[in-house]
Every structure is written in structure tokens, then in C-alpha cells.
Amino acid sequence: MICRIKKIFYFPVAFYFRFFAKIRLSYWKPKIIIVTGSSGKTTLLNLIESQIGTKAKYSHHANSSYGIPFNILGLERKTLSLLEWPVLFLLAPLKTFSLKPKEDLYIVEADCDRPEEGKFLATFLKPEVTLWTNSTRTHSMNFDNLVQNNVFKNVEQAIGYEYGYFIEYTSKLIIVNGDSEIIKEQLPRSNVKIVSITIKNLMDYKVALMGTEFKIDKKVFKFNQLLPRETFYSLKMCLDLLKYLKCPVNQSFDKFILPPGRSNRFKGIKNTTIIDSSYNANLDSMKVILDMFDNITAENKWAVLGDMLEQGKSEKEEHEKLADEIAKIKLEKIILMGPRISKYLYPKLITINEKQITKNEKIVKFLNPDEVLNYLKANLNGGELLLFKGARFLEGVIENLLLNKSEAKKLCRREKIWQERRKKFGL
Fold first, then answer.
1. Nearest to 112 by CA among 182, 162, 67, 39
2. What would the pLDDT profile of 185-202 be if each residue is shown by its tens digit?
3. pLDDT in tens, 302-331
4. I need a surface site. Which of 92, 140, 189, 416 has the fewest CB within 10 A?
5. What is the torsional sign of CA 186, 188, 194, 200?
6. What is the dihedral of CA 147, 323, 281, 3, to 10 degrees?
7. End-to-end CA distance of the chain
8. What span, in angstroms and rounded, lies between the C-alpha atoms of 333 and 304?
9. Could you state, in order of their start, the residue ranges of all structural domains in the chain?
10. Reading across the β-sheet that carries 363-366, which strands appear in turn?
């Protein structure tokens, strides 16, 4: 019942904040650049910020129909509780005519979690430039009805069409992942200049525990961070945007910071190394991270994988496809956690790995994060390389395995409400 009420009032309430944010934009008048896509948006935003710096304002931690108007108005949800809303409603008109930002460039991360969100944001922001990283099955459950009612043939097409509003309302330049068939289907909706980036632009890719190297158009870019091969699209988009803006390129990208939960590297207990990619998970992002993990040379690699949420009617299919992807790479231990991954993925993975699991319990499954934590503490021998990817509070498991507990602030979901939820799961 509560979820139904939220759906009914989602956009009517969002229009209230958009109304005041639009007034503020009208006298601020920044050049607007949208960064969008199913995944990789925040990484791309941070790549751009590492180059442009304080010359632009960025919509950090705000990419929705509420978050972006809040960001424009200078509003912020701190506790994520219902008690904040009356204050936000009162502050919105008061913030409208406050001192406008000094930056004349506004770089916005924009998402499409539900039908009509792309249109809501695109008609509001009307960007000069749009960068579109990819379009995959994320928040699929919100688009199932459009397929059921024969509005679209499949969920991928429905999601792609919603993202397409951003390019439809872009006035000057569109930079896209040219290897995405879903994106290419939407390009006729625009008549402005389109720059299409393809894998042909990537001449070489190397990843090791110490960092990542890309060779793009004969230039080498080295990062201290662990980055999947597909980050190439974001890196090339950043470079093309800098060219459009006539900004110099710092080839070292030494100011680039990975957002929390995106392949961040930590030292763990018992001389383990933790790769934290716990922010979110869908099939494509799982495949990307597993491929990166497979390319890292290490003796004893363990993967701790959680549910893929909001997959809707494709939930079973997506988890079974993930089983095939996991089976392709060499892992010493596979630890699964969550009701979906246990119900759908585990049986298929057991079948694929039938000859291997009886001897050493290579694959184990649990429902809750505290069970995973207890298993790891009891079974880690030392020196393992641990990958964490998926939902269901894996960041709480990581927090308890950190060698330096002060690094917990670098993990995702630090707000009080998430801390309380983790406690309920024994973390």
C-alpha cells in the first residue's frame, strides 16, 4: 500500500520542487551537460571533475527527479527520514532566489529509475551536451507493465526509450556508446551532432592490483584505481567533452577519485585484499566487474556475490545468465548471498560446477550478510583476494573485515538510516 501511494505521488510532488528549481535555473543560466546511462555515470562524472575542477558545479549524490532539483536549490536530505520533508517543502521557495552559483557550467548526473523520469528531467534541464554511457536492464521491474501492455517489445527497449529523452532535448552535442544497439535505436530522435565511441578506439587494456592502463588513440592513460575495461567509454567521452569545451587535458588524471562501492581497494584482516564493488548490481555491471577480476593475476581469488535487485519478471533469467558468467572465470571460492541468488543462480552454478564442488565446497550460499561475515571470519586463511559485488548490505560485511576501521567512511551507504538497517541484519 505504501509503495503504491509513493508511485501515485512521486511526480506530482517532484513537480513542486522542479517548479522552483526551474525558476532558479532561469536566472542562473548555466551551460548544462548531462551524464546519463544505466551504469558508469558517477565514474564519468568524477573523471570530468578531475579535469575541469572548480570551473563547474556538479550534481554529486543527486541524479533523480528529486535529487537534481534539490541540488539546484541547495537542498539536501541528510537522514533520509520522513521528518525532513516538511522542512524541504518550506525551504524550496526560500532557496529559489538565494545567491546563485558562481559557476556557469553545470554537469548533471541523471538517471531513469522509472517510466517518465527521462522525460521529466530532459524537458526540465534541456542540456547543451549529453553523454550516454550505456542502456541495460536496471530497475527493470518498473518497466514491466510497459511490455505487458505492448507499449514496447521488451524491457531493454522501454528503458532505452526513456533514456532517449535526454538526447531528444539536447541542443548541440551528443556523445554516446556506439557499440550499444539500444542506444543506436534512439539516435534518430535527435538532429544535432553525434559523436559515437566504439571499442575500436581502445588499443590496449591492462589491469593489475596496482592499477589500470588504457591505450586510446595511441595515448596511454594510467590509473592507480582498479577499472573495468568498459570504463574506456567513459574515459573517451570525458576526453571528447574536454575537446568540445576547449579545456586542456591532464593525461595523468591524478585528481580522479573513484566513488564509493565501485571497485575500491582496501586492506582486510588476515592479510587479505578487498575489492569493494558493492554499490549496485545488474547483469551487465556484474559481467564487467567479473571480467576485470578475471584479468587480475592473483593466487587465491574469492568472489562474494549478492542479489541483483529490481529485475522484475526477468529476475530468474538474469540470475541464471549470471551463473554462466561466473562459470567462465577461475575462482577458488564462490560465496553467494540473498534469496534470489540462492533460488535461481545457485542451482544452475552447482550443475555447471558439479565435478568441482563436492571436494572443497567451492560454492556456498547464505541468505543474510551476518552469515557471510561469520563464514569469512572462520574460513579465511590469509592472503585471499576478495571481490564483493551485489546487494543486501555487502558494504556492512566489508566494514567488519577492514584492517583499518577508519576506512569505513570510504564505503557506500553511510547515512544513519542504512546503519540502522545493517544493525537489523546483525552487522
1. 162
2. 999 999 999 999 999 999
3. 999 999 988 888 899 999 999 999 999 999
4. 416
5. positive
6. 50
7. 29
8. 8
9. 2-245, 264-424
10. 264-267, 273-277, 385-389, 301-306, 333-337, 363-366
* Cα gap 293→62, rounded to integer Å: 29
Which cell is 409 given?
Answer: 567512511
Helix (H) or strand (E) holding 273: strand 273-277
Q: Angle CA(312)–CA(140)–CA(422) in degrees, nearest 5?
A: 75
For residue 205, what is the enclosing H or E element?
A: strand 202-208
C-alpha cell at 289: 566487474
Identify each DSSP E strand in 316-408 by its residue range: 333-337, 363-366, 385-389
**DSSP class per residue in 24-79:** HHHHH--EEEEEESSS-HHHHHHHHHHHHGGGSEE-TT--STTHHHHHHHT---SS
Residue 308, all three cell numbers: 541483483
Residue reference for cell 548544462: 32
Contact 408, 399 (CB under 8 A): yes
For residue 135, the one-letter residue type is S
2-245 maps to CATH 3.40.1190.10: yes
Q: Indicate the residue type of 241.
A: L
- Does domain 264-424 fall under CATH 3.90.190.20? My reply is yes
Q: What single-letter DSSP state applies at residue 423?
A: H
Residue 248's SS3 state is coil
How do residues 375-411 score in pLDDT, each as one tens digit?
A: 999 999 999 999 999 988 899 999 999 999 999 999 9
Half-sphere exposure of 390 (CA within 13 A, CB side): 26
